[in-house]
Specification:
1 helix; alpha+beta; 2 strands; two-stranded antiparallel sheet
Amino acid sequence: MLRTFLLLIVLLILIGIALVATGYINLNRQENGSVSIQTQDIDVGTTATNVSVPVVTMENRQVSVPSVAVENSQANAQ
């Protein structure tokens, strides 16, 4: 449990470092010692695009399948 918690903390720290390194988050130190955080806007949405999609169709065919038949002529002889 503790290892999982520590791994989660390390992962969050690494994600934070990556966001600062790539420029998504800017940390600016003010003259009075305070720190301001500026983030870039991220647009999330959808766009219409033509994509080739495989189509599955159903078709009836006659095939040979195994079958089992049991004849019990002795059951009526009792």
